[in-house]
Design brief:
By secondary structure, this protein is α+β, with helices and mostly antiparallel strands. The chain contains three helices and nine strands.
């Protein structure tokens, strides 16, 4: 029996793979649980068309992400924080503050896609963060922590 997988199945295959399985496994587990559909000729044609359309949309998204990464490359932002006399800030800088500063600069980046190179930023100075724009497209931005 051939099945088109709708989700990743451990030790069997990934989403959108066409796999051969035993009849009982497909009919009693994969199809009822919604992990796959029966791979008839019409289902295979629909599946092929969906893959073609998805790859076209993904290519457009990849081009837009590359353009956004190119714009972000070299961007420098400033983040204000309350600091003491010695340059040590009260609290620490996190990805939420970086995302807000990027939003003010005109870039709508989700905070979950920002990774700070250092564990905790507790001093004034210049640091770098990695911004993931798309699956494997990312860029580094620099940000400066200044006293308010």
């Amino acid at each position: 029996m051939e099945i088109i997988l709708k989700e990743d199945v451990k030790n069997l295959g990934y989403k959108d793979d066409v796999v051969k399985v035993r009849d009982g496994y497909g009919a009693n587990f994969l199809i009822p649980k919604g992990f796959g559909i029966l791979a008839t000729e019409s289902a295979k044609k629909v599946h092929t068309e969906n893959l073609r359309q998805r790859s076209k949309k993904e290519e457009q998204t990849r081009v837009q992400a590359a353009a956004t990464a190119e714009k972000l490359n070299g961007v420098s932002i400033q983040i204000g924080a309350k600091a003491g006399e010695s340059g040590k800030i009260f609290g620490s800088i996190n990805t939420i503050q970086i995302a807000e500063a990027l939003k003010k600069a005109g870039y709508d980046i989700d905070r979950k896609n920002i990774t700070i190179d250092e564990d905790h930023i507790k001093n004034l100075g210049t640091y770098t963060a990695k911004v993931k724009v798309y699956k494997e497209i990312s860029t580094n931005i620099s940000f400066e922590v200044v006293a308010e």
